[in-house]
Amino acid sequence: MEPRRLLFIASIGNKAPYRQTRHSAGHLLLDAVAPLLPTTLPNTGAFHETWYSPTYMNITGPKLVRQLEKWAVSQNEMLRGNGISPTSTSTTSANTSTFPTTLVILHDELESPLGKVRIKRGGPESASLRGHRGLISICETLRGKGLYPTRRGAKLDLSILRIGVGIGRPDSREKGAVSDYVLSNVTPTELAAYHRAAEPVVKVLAEELYRVES
């Protein structure tokens, strides 16, 4: 069975020198997820893409959305050129010439237990972004371009799937303590917890790849 949608799997965090910090847990999770995709989702490489945000968290949106658009449009053109279309795979996409696309965002989840995976569908209209600056930047950029919520004539039939991995929380609730905590390097124990989260995340991605509903 052919996949029913495209997945753009993007991790958000911070660039060097903060690449190995708790705030970059999304990147560290993708490090563990990416090697599992070829065996878990064989022969589906044309339908999914992994991408690490190269910017600081609070300005993630513009570059991520440009890359998402570029990839999804290109893949739809390539698939159509090979005779593969939403019609041929019986998807319910409103646009019969374009595969629906899911933007999967891997990110850190402050206050969640270490390594716990939390799944949320949609933007702030569905579940709070809880002040996460990376998610806010992405959702504001998508809204500004009319991609989500989708405006008439938009290039993409877009869904959002947010996958957060728990990073715990410092004992102190003071702003400075929280900032120091999320910008501190992860320990080997924490890194192992993120890696253990990869397998359940890949199962979620497999289900999403074959999901028909928009």
UniProtKB/TrEMBL annotation:
InterPro entries: Pept_tRNA_hydro, Pept_tRNA_hydro_sf. It comes from the Eukaryota. Keywords: Hydrolase, RNA-binding, tRNA-binding. Transmembrane segments: none annotated. GO terms for molecular function: peptidyl-tRNA hydrolase activity; tRNA binding. PANTHER family: PEPTIDYL-TRNA HYDROLASE. This is Peptidyl-tRNA hydrolase. It comes from Penicillium canescens.
